[in-house]
Amino acid sequence: MTRMSLVLSLGLTLLAGCASDGVLELTIDLPLSPGAERVFAFTQARDATNNPILDEWRDDADLDGVELGTARTEDHISLRSARDGIDVHVKVSFCSTARCSALPDANAPQLLYTLHTPIYVGQRTSYTQHIPSAPTTRDPTVTQVDKCDIAGCVGGELRSYCRADGTHFCE
Fold it and tell me: Which uninterrupted H or E stretch holds 2?
């Protein structure tokens, strides 16, 4: 099952906008439901500059979470920005409600990611984060995603999207 979420304003704008913006197509490959109770994966993404990853983010622009089921599910989010060089923080919380708004969701298990410079003005990039199983605890560890792991500006799947000198193919 695939769900498409077209969002985000990280200093980013919604998908309607200038052609000179950079676009990151973020895919979260979600796990199977861990049991009989309903579990939702609530994905949020923000410009890392003004949004510390350990802070709570509440915004009406966030989309409802994706319910986990008996088949793997993907959550697709398109992020657009007119700025190069920003890092993006991503949180995936596993909650009992679609917006993580129930009292027990206050300490819901979550996974944290920082994507380093995933957006390049005038270019379309992509990144997929595979989550093998739903976490059972809230872990403050932040997984760092290097810019060389962000696909874009060349065709095909590569082991690295950077040149030998460390610059991304989109730079």
Answer: strand 2-9
